[in-house]
Amino acid sequence: MRYVDEFRDPELITRASEEIRRLAESERHYRIMEVCGGHTHAIYRFGLKDLLPSNVELIHGPGCPVCVLPMGRIDDGLAIARESNRIFAAFGDMMRVPGARGSPFEHKARGTDVRIVYSPADALQLARKNPEKEVIFFAIGFETTSPSTALTLMSAQAEGVRNFSVFCNHVTIVPAIRAILDSPDMRLDGFIGPGHVSTVIGCRPYEWIAKSEGKPVVTSGFEPLDLLQSIIMLLQQLKAGEARVENQYKRVVPWEGNRAALRAMAEVFELRPYFEWRGLGFISQSALRIREKYAAWDAERRYDVPETRVADPKSAQCGEVLKGVLKPAQCKLFGKECTPEHPIGALMVSSEGSCAAYYNYEYRKSLVTSITAVA
Amino acid sequence: MCLAIPGKIIELISDQHQVGVVEVAGVRRKVQLGLLADDLPKTGDWVLIHVGFAMSKISEVDAAEQMQLLSMLGEAEQAMEEVRGYGQEDGVSLREPDFRN
């Protein structure tokens, strides 16, 4: 019998931390990227950095869908929803995310009918209940949410719900990893692979990272001990000069992923030739659009989309932070103009963005310490 | 949106397409089971839910672990708000969200 507290047993955590110190060769500097924003949040929350030797560095990856969404997409989604017979439905996480002309929350104050839904299925239900209105669901997320949007679109088509459409912003994680590996100023030794995205896509899509790039990948759970174990598994491979994909999160992630979810995605979506990521720029084949077969439910085909482009503020160094070239606090705007309350850059927008996580856990803590010191 | 919420299947609704009632910390809501079509859960099984859709079957121990993890990450309240929001047919009224967890 395994017990829940096993993952936070201080003795096991100390032992894991010692094992990491033993495996890390003192003359090497290890740079390991955790791809997923949920991992970034857990790493800061549990203070895992303090359990690692100084030559094992964690680089925070692009796996926060709210953070990487270009501002112009928010403006576009809200622009098409402005007509009086339309409803803009989105997850709660989106409500305070600023577009160049304001957040969904601000548009609501200006008269747009904006609703929070917690599931795409509820956005469809909103359309069924309001046949005189057109409901536009602002879809966002990696592979943890895109299969749900796909099934919802399949239901809409099967039932012929004509007053429902999806403004699709779904992105896929693997091309973002490729873009980061291709970037010339980037040097990484291995990856902590995403947990919940991998329940859908499985572990195979990471194999090229091991085979062609020679970097180990370990998909990981979110507990302190999961993350430490994943780092141990990566260091063991690096020590042995190996590069394989391993699954630390076997209790939730099947190697082959979730086939029903993958089928639904393949039925409804196809890859866009390219898509813009905040902080990373245009990445080819990195996002999903709705297939022709479901064109009647595709908000981008149904409505005139202004195709707003908003450049990231030049002073914000989100791209460098995303690629791990800079730490959050090294950005000129961090904690000054750019805070979780008034985000300027992408990574401050959501609690899973590395700047917001750093601000909430490290920066606030250091402020308290310095205030106490002065007092 | 990125939360994985553990829930127990209380009831399978036969007249609806792949829908079940789950219980999360005492709150019961309908969730979609279509993404588990290849291996539909039974009453009493535990699942991880993303945006109102059960995404994977997990053990009871893993479910308890996930709930504890959410609370350690300061996300339990947000998760329960999400669960309570499932099936709100008119959408949920807007209030200023707390971005500091």
Could you walk me through the main structural features you see in this protein, from its secondary elements to its overall organization?
The complex is a heterodimer of chains A (about 375) and B (about 100). Chain A has helices at about 10-25, 35-45, 65-70, 70-80, 105-110, 120-130, 145-160, 175-180, 195-200, 205-210, 225-240, 260-270, 300, 320, 355-375, and strands at about 30-35, 55-65, 85-90, 115, 135-140, 165-170, 190-195, 215-220, 245, 270, 275, 280-285, 290. By secondary structure, chain A is of the alpha/beta class. Chain A folds into three domains: about 5-65 and about 175-245, Rossmann fold, CATH 3.40.50.11750; about 65-170 and about 285-300, HypD, alpha/beta domain 2 (Rossmann fold, 3-Layer(aba) Sandwich); about 320-375, no CATH class. In chain A, the strands form four sheets. In chain A, strands 2-1-7-8-9 form a five-stranded parallel beta sheet. In chain A, helix 1 packs parallel to helix 11 (about 225-240), helix 2 (about 35-45) runs parallel beside helix 15 (about 355-375) and helix 7 (about 145-160) crosses helix 12. The longest helix of chain A has 21 residues, at about 355-375. Chain B has one domain (about 5-80): SH3 type barrels. In chain B, a hairpin with a 2-residue loop joins strand 4 (about 45-50) and strand 5 (about 55-60). Classes of the chains: A alpha/beta (about 375), B alpha+beta (about 100).
Largest sheet of chain A: 5 strands, parallel
Quick one: CATH superfamily of the largest domain in chain A? HypD, alpha/beta domain 1
Main sheet of chain B?
Answer: 5 strands, antiparallel
Structural class of chain A: alpha/beta
Number of domains of chain B: 1
pLDDT under 50 segments of chain B (min length 5)?
95-101
The CATH topology of chain B: SH3 type barrels
Here the CATH topology of the largest domain in chain A equals Rossmann fold
The number of distinct structural domains of chain A comes to 3
How big a fraction of the residues of chain A is strand?
15-25%
